[in-house]
Amino acid sequence: MTLDDVMPDPVDVWPENRRVVRLFTKLGGQWRVTTGGATGLDYALALALMERMQLDHKSFDEMLDALGVLEIAALNEMNQKD
Fold this sequence. Notes:
By secondary structure, this protein is mostly helical. 55% of the residues lie in helices and 11% in strands. The protein is built from four helices and two strands; from the N terminus they run ααββαα. The chain has helices at 3-6, 18-26, 43-52, 57-78; strands at residues 31-34, 37-41. The protein has a two-stranded antiparallel ribbon with strand order 1-2. Strand 1 and strand 2 form a beta hairpin. Helix 2 packs across helix 4 (57-78). The longest helix is centred in the C-terminal third of the chain and has 22 residues, at 57-78. 6% of the residues are buried.
């Protein structure tokens, strides 16, 4: 097995989504998990990181909404049955 066997295909991210995608990847270990699997992100770190970004109120709300979209998409992907 080589690294190419396990690496996912690259994903293009539109410039306007790069900040929220970077935030989402920083939260990779912040999933709330039960015996049934992941239930959602633990937002404590997300909110702290967003505060450090010094976003205005509108940008903060937009980033939080976009993070929620990524969270739901990831949960749907993780919960797919083969």
